[in-house]
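Below: protein 1.
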Amino acid sequence: MKNLKVFNFKSIRSKLFAAFSTIILFVLVLGITTLIFNQNTNDKVKELNDEQLNSLVKAEKIALNMSQRTNLLRGFLLYEDETYKEEFQNGIEESIALENELLELDKSGKVQELIDQKIEWGTLTDQVYAEYEKGNKERALQIMETEVQPLSDELIQSFEQLAIEREEQMNQTGNDIVNASSTNGSISLIIMILAVILGILIAALLSRSMTKQLKTVMNRLKKMADGDLSDEDLQVESKDEIGQLVESTNDMSHHIKKLLGKIHSVSETVSAHSEELTQSANEVMKGTEKVSAAMEEIASGSENQANHASQMAENVTAFSTKLRESNEDSELTYDASKQVLDMTHDGRKLMNRSVNQMKSIYSIFDQSVDKVKDLDAQSSEISKLVTVIKDIADQTNLLALNAAIEAARAGEHGEGFAVVADEVRKLAVQVSDSVTEITTIVGSIQEGSSTVVQSLEEGYAEVEKGANEIQSMEETFETLRIAIDEIAASVGFVTNNLTEMTNSSQKMDASIEEIASVSEEAASGVQESAAASQQTNSTMQEVTASSEQLSQLAEELNGLVRQFKM
């Protein structure tokens, strides 16, 4: 249990909640990481498609438009064909539209400078046409050769260079996406491996720790129910309800040992005192027989009355002493019986507390099973989240396909982007595979939850068995209590008889004193003494019977105690 100190909470509910919250946290981290990566990938692909690719295409179209219009202007000047002029004028609207679109995509100073130069180039072409219309064809050709053509070549080259830069940016972005995909795949794999290992470890350790302690308690309760109390205290390995059950079991074992030891001691005392009481009763009976003989001798001859009265006084004195001793022993026995009875009541109360504790653990196990089932439902919700992630991956795959189509339209300048689009498509496939692995992990977690539910239900059954065993021990204590009640009643009866015998002995002593002091009342004294002797003899017979019954009950109590192995 030392390896579970991290989960050493004071309740089973908190321990299970902390363990499975850790697993869910790992799964959530994995899902959130995948979602963030997919979002970043989508943003970068959108940037490639909406900005960089379009910017590349627009730059190349502007360069192509300028090249075509420059050739049209040169052809018009050389061949004076109005068709060239019309085509040149038709290309102006397309050129303006391309310029505006390029500015919308890229508002950098470099693009603005190129557009300004292109406007300047357009102004020069207007001068060429104006000179031509004036009839200055040579001037128009001169402007064409010295200003329009060089500026056109420079702008075409600049726009082509801009397209090349956009292509390089697209390639760099594609490499960034591929590198991020590789990093995310490694992180996802590490998190998945940690989640699986942690889930298996927590499930194994929790189920092992709880079932191990419960089985230990059940085995100890079975031994106690069979009367074996010789084992050492159970080791308390946790502070939760199971640890409290272990402590209660140890306390109950200590109390039962102490109670049985006291019962054994008291039963031995009762047995010894009953034997002494029987012996004293026999001696008293012998004494009463001697008193009866003395009464006969007094009746047969008054001349020996004084001597017999003196002897009778000695016998009665000895008899009174024995009665007082027997009475004291009986009172001690009665007090000891009451102590044993009180301890039996305490033991029964402890049994009741143990039963209540078992019921509490019974209820907690029931709640724990419900909590683990709730965890299984939450795992199903995670499966739904994984389905959403898979849908996003499919959309990313579709977006990659669209990007590949756009790259194909872009021609040779879109080859680099086509490679990136293919990498994005592969990345979408990898995300889909990761989603499949996450689904497998969630399934493993659900299987682990089922295993924990099964372990808790086994512990649930063991706790119910323990409750039945404690109930059986409670019935055994009830039997002990009834036997001790009978012993206490018998001891009380014997005490009452001894009290009556003490009173009778006092009467006998008074009668003998009267016989010794007043010889003329010898006849009446002999009659009273004879009657007292008969009453004493009858009482002693009852004392002997009660003492034998007390000895038998003490033996039965010893037999019950010997059933337990201390």
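Below: protein 2.
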Amino acid sequence: MIRQMRDIAPVVLWIVLVAFIGTIFFAWGMDFRSRQKEPSVGKVGKKRIPLRYFDKMVSIEREKQRQQAGGELSPYQAKMIPRQVWETEVSRILHQKAFKELGISASADEVFEYIKTNPPPEVLNIPAFQTDSVFDTTKFVEFLNRPESFDNEGMRQLEAYTANFLVPMNTLRRLLEVGRVPSPSEIAYEYRRRAEKAVFEFAKVEAATVGVDSAAVTDAMVKAYYEANPDSFFSESQAELYYVRMQKEPTPEDEKAYYDEMLQVKARIESGESTFEEEARLESDDEASGKQGGDLGWFSKGSMVPAFEAVAFALDSGELSDPVKTQFGYHLILVEGRREQDTVEEVKARHVLRKVMPTMETLDSLESLAERLRAQAVENGLVAAVSGHPGLHVDSTGLFSKGEFIQGIGYLFGATSFAFREDLGTVSDIFESNEAFFLLQLKRRTDKGILPVAEVRPRITEHLMDSVARERAREHLASAVAALGPEDSLPMLGESDSLIACGVTDTITRNQFVPSVGFDNEPVAATFALPAGARSGVIQTSKASFVVRPLWRDTVESIPWDSPAVRQTRLSLMSDARENAYYAWYQNYRDKAKLENNLSEYYMD
């Protein structure tokens, strides 16, 4: 019995852990309630989402992602978690509402049947549920039939999640799938897209290759575009910051300290104080190979960065290198073997890697500099404070909205809160990321509304320059093609005109990517619409102008309705239609819901 319980224990453990796979799993097993005056991150319809509950969901999701990443999250990843949890909560509440409106529920038998027929993937590999190393459904069902199997929180959450979401979701999808059967014309169209083939030649002029000076865009053009498209320039409140970035970089003294440290590692190995494998496991910053005692296996030339490779192939078998510097840091390399494999020279090697990072002394010195600068900036402003420090300069972020990437700073925790809560001219405390220390000063803020033309002029100018370039590309290609004779090939154009790129494709279908042309776009569609040998007119895409001529086409005259290929096409279309039906339903249902999102008040950074 004890042996059996030990075998079953991993199942219970997995079911407990699965509660942390996503916040939705945890939430489906509970019904939060909140006092009316308790802070909330928002509302979905009439349902408030308490801040206390939501923050717990964020913590669970953050820990899950840390475990998956094997370490701390980047500022961007951390910033996205509250938004991800928000969307999960919106989905959960809306699905609960829809299930109730449609009268969808799950019986105990349906829940049991679902868990029985959809065992978690990890369960398949547990020996207690296997016969001759193959998953045995009978043993899993026997486990589920024992009442004590559901006598733990993990199983109760799994049962609740299955009853409240998985089974009702299956029912909802089946309802949405009713009548979602592709018509014969849809099947025929898709079959032809997959089966018909062609080879074509093309000539193109990319808009980016056509020089357009900003002087080509006049004030009148900018004004006309601005007045014709006012909604394009609506913005929430925005802020702009001055900032000084003090990069965390190793000094020459730091470099020498790491080099000397690697010499000490080498000395311990050569003296027999420790083995190479032991040093790799303890000291290497290459976690993957470090766990294997630094083993890199066999590799040939071209597999490693040049500096590493040059030393590895110069060492004799059994020889240990001095510290070798690459862009990754300092390496000690031990060659364990050399061979020729199919006339290719290979070596088998191990390495210890130490990444060269700023030392604590360097970081302390940099932080002290930041503190002195801040004191000066509070008195005289950031620009004046930095003026006496060569190598440092003040930059501007440009305008940004809440939640947006901040140019020059990135996702710096606390920066957005500072920008939208402090008074103009305020100098920040010291901000720190993995890469740098920052000092910020609030330059300006704008109100919500249509941005003034002066603010958006660069954006409009860029758009109009692109439009001019696209039109010039079209005119250039049209003029060149007009000079060709009826039988002249398009690739001839590229021989005398550097702006025109030409080519002949391999055999393609309608729904595959074509190098230098694109995927399922207008030039490809034109190829399959033209008879072989006919030349198209100029076709414009967002980036270039094309002319195409099919050289060969294999068309489908009649549809082989009983063939496996057509049956597969039908099944594929049915699957797509069902997925599209669900996503269209959910998006429509979500659009009609009244959502109140207050995330920016609590999770601005």
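Confidence is low (pLDDT under 50) at residues 1-26.
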